[in-house]
Design brief:
15 strands, alpha/beta, Purple Acid Phosphatase, chain A, domain 2, 387 residues, single chain, 7-stranded mixed sheet, globular
Length: 387
């Protein structure tokens, strides 16, 4: 009986793991939104319908060849799902202890910001959005300002100390009000960063383009404010969003690169918006590195799935978002949903492979105002030499 119960539990968990993993990977593709939505709905149907079909087969009172075949198929599916459950657990452990997670983040000072305590103005739109934002334990307006010190393998002590503010996944839609973003900008400006990098999913609706002058347009950084687009930015006409951001003083990096100097340090800034906008920046024409490993190569991307591309193109630091840290992180289990070809592997955090470091933001806002154990993030990245 215990073996039967264990099989049902493992099989049920494995079933959910398989179909959730499939949804994650579907959302990591560069498909049109309608196809992604259709495939997601089909996965949702399978997630609900298959357990019903299995229960009907296992607990059928009738006994016939067809019923016996169905029962056998049900047990076979549960066995395969149990294997998937165990494999997923082992994979989670591998991700948690993988070498790419170590040796990069050498300092992290976190400031807790509760925006509800900073303003009496509404932060969520009336109706469902406001109701969701007030669910018990919801951290949607509890922002973490995190000063993270990242060690870059090729950065010399002479050139360390560059301060980059990394924002991502703002999702300006009206569900979270303009006031929220105004407060975010104020906190970023107080950090006095050398550069601000915004890695996609800025605006969801045309009406929110009018917010840009009073929000992103007020960002200040010594070397400028740069951005790339993400998949949700396709909801707005591309020419309009670029025009609004250019008028506000933001600099677009999608599919291109430019060389700047920050505090005497030469830096190549480039953009990669794949797989939704292409091509990625062609770095073959960049200046060669000198004996000190300069200029640094910093790439703004939306999806962390471009980490491999960054390694192939000798990038020092890649900034990404897209996965929102999972947005809801369960105790022990961690994140479940992450729209990536790698599932939850790069949900958020700092990673290193070879000479390439990647920082993945948890997102500075979100579309659906629900966050549990995964507050929004303003990342202030301080670049350090590796010791």
């Amino acid at each position: 009986m215990m073996l039967l119960l264990l099989g049902l539990v493992l099989g049920g968990i494995g079933h959910a793991v398989v179909w959730t993993a499939l949804v994650n990977r579907i959302h990591g593709l560069g498909l049109e939104r309608r196809w992604i939505d259709l495939l997601t709905i089909l996965c949702g149907v399978a997630l609900v319908a298959i357990p019903i079909a299995i229960a009907a087969a296992l607990f059928a009172f009738a006994d016939s060849p067809a019923v016996r075949v169905g029962r056998g198929a049900a047990w076979l599916y549960l066995a395969a799902s149990s294997v998937a459950c165990v494999a997923a657990l082992l994979q989670r452990l591998r991700f948690a202890w993988h070498p790419e997670r170590y040796g990069t983040l050498i300092g992290n000072h976190t400031t807790h910001i509760n925006l509800r305590n900073e303003t009496r103005a509404p932060l969520a739109a009336p109706g469902i959005s406001d109701w969701l934002s007030r669910l018990p334990g919801n951290q949607v307006f509890e922002v973490r300002l995190q000063e993270k010190h990242l060690a870059l393998p090729r950065l010399t002590a002479q050139h360390e100390g560059l301060r980059l503010a990394h924002l991502s996944d703002l999702h300006m839609s009206g569900r979270i009000t303009k006031v929220y973003f105004e407060r975010i900008v104020e906190h970023v400006n107080r950090c006095e960063p050398d550069l601000v990098a915004i890695t996609g999913d800025l605006v969801e609706r045309d009406a929110c383009l009018d917010w840009i002058p009073d929000t992103l347009g007020r960002l200040r950084a010594r070397a400028g404010v740069y951005y790339v687009l993400g998949n949700h930015d396709r909801h707005v006409e591309e020419s309009r969003i670029h025009a609004a951001l250019a008028d506000a003083g933001l600099i677009y990096l999608g599919g291109q690169w430019r060389q700047i100097t920050i505090g005497g340090t030469p830096v190549i800034l480039a953009g990669n918006e794949m797989p939704w906008y292409g091509p990625a920046a062609d770095l073959s024409g960049c200046p060669a590195r000198d004996s000190a490993g300069l200029p640094l190569r910093i790439v703004l991307a939306h999806s962390p799935d471009q980490f491999g591309w960054a390694q192939e193109h000798d990038v020092d630091l890649m900034l990404a978002g897209h996965n929102h840290g999972g947005q809801v992180r369960f105790p022990i289990l961690g994140p479940v949903l992450a729209p990536s070809l790698h599932g939850v592997r790069y949900a958020a955090g700092a990673f290193r492979a070879g000479n390439t470091v990647m920082h993945v933001s948890r997102g500075t806002a979100c579309l659906t105002p629900v966050r549990y154990n995964c507050p929004a993030e303003i990342a202030l990245l301080v670049l350090r030499a590796q010791t």
